[in-house]
Amino acid sequence: MKEIFLCSICNVSSGSCVEDCSFCTQSLHNGADIEKYKEKSLENILEELNGAKEYGALGFCLVTSGKSLDEKKCEYISKVAKKIKSENDNIHLIACCGVASKESLLELKKAGVDSYNHNLETSKSFYENICSTHDWDERYKSCENVKSVGLMLCSGGIFGLGESKEDRIELLKALQDLEPESSPINFFHPNSALPIKADALSRDEALECIKLSRDYLKNTRLMIAAGRSLIFGENQKEIFDAGVDAIVLGNYLTTKGADMKCDIDMLNRYDIKIATSCH
Description:
36% helix, alpha/beta, 10-stranded parallel beta sheet
């Protein structure tokens, strides 16, 4: 029986990012109508965690907006991580806080963070088409920093930004070199506020991206995140047959996801077992 790892995302600081990533509703440059806040309360974070745990989520990712893991963010995430781990030692805790130095990553590791998520997003060749305020090399270097301090690396990208198939392969080769323990595959979710005016990928093209990712990332936990419900709707069996072994339950950063119970019911219909261990 196939086994699927479940993860949940907690957007602990939202919006007001000064970077100009053209795919992101949290960028001030894009003016998207989203909820904005600096630091979510510990009470609300724990409430979200407990809700996800009820449905079998083992991974829990703390996500902040903005370019980098600065000192203030590091202190905040460390405080939250310590509290979570003191009560939930079976949770695989992930932080996603942007470009990060070795020193700041070590602080998160000491606080109980297990993995650090920093996506390459797209190929180095295409990156200048979607962002001008920082470069792709900074992203790659942060991923190397994660590995060097002994944290597990979670790194993936977004398909459907207008990139070519060659760009997709270039991205996957870069990820292959990094050897992340897990790789989130996202599909662009159109939003009228964003500069990217591409339509959502077709089901067939998205499925091809999944298969391509599985071919290049043979030893990586392949996770489907944003765009899963938008593109595949209620019939998602093909994505698991294509090699997906993890999904994100619930909402994404500023986009609503599927109801958690509906996803669990779907996995049960497909006779897919929910992982009970992080390993």
